[in-house]
Write a structure and sequence with these properties.
about 140 residues; mainly beta; Metal Binding Protein, Guanine Nucleotide Exchange Factor, Chain A; five-stranded mixed sheet; 1 helix; metal-binding; Aldehyde-activating protein
Length: about 140
């Protein structure tokens, strides 16, 4: 049985479905992923030989290919949310974990390019956690 995964962008103009299984889930700390996520790392799932179908908003999807590299990012032109990219060179669909509406079926496989990690991302286990924005009483 083939697994079915669904996802969308923040504004809801783009929706997609992926038929297939995730083989790996990488937290990439390279400087390119830091730049394109605005965070410490990208969280991408890799699905080999899978089928990506745009259910809605395909024309709102734009893909940026970093010159002379395998690094590419697809995103919604309306809200900027990261979306899946077909990586033909590795016969995979690369799915940003946060774009999924269905549960992520695997735990992260590895942190990659850890040598490029942002200095502020070390020891995050020591940072306090809150259910909401600190100091806010309303949701």
């Amino acid at each position: 049985m083939i697994n079915k995964h669904q996802g969308s962008c923040l504004c809801g103009s783009v929706k997609y479905e992926l038929l297939g299984d995730f083989q790996s889930f990488f937290l990439c700390h390279c400087t390119r992923c830091q730049k394109d996520t605005g965070s410490a790392h990208a969280a991408n799932l890799f699905a080999k030989a899978s089928t990506l179908t745009w259910l809605q908003g395909e024309y709102d999807v734009k893909t940026y290919q970093y010159p002379n590299s395998l690094h590419a990012k697809s995103f919604c032109q309306q809200c900027g949310s990261a979306l899946p990219t077909i990586a033909e060179s590795i016969n995979s669909v690369v799915v940003p974990a946060g774009s999924l509406d269905s549960p992520v079926s695997i735990m992260p496989t590895a942190k990659i390019f850890a040598g490029s990690s942002a200095s502020w991302s070390a020891n995050l286990g020591d940072v306090p956690s809150y259910e909401k924005l600190p100091g806010q009483t309303k949701s």
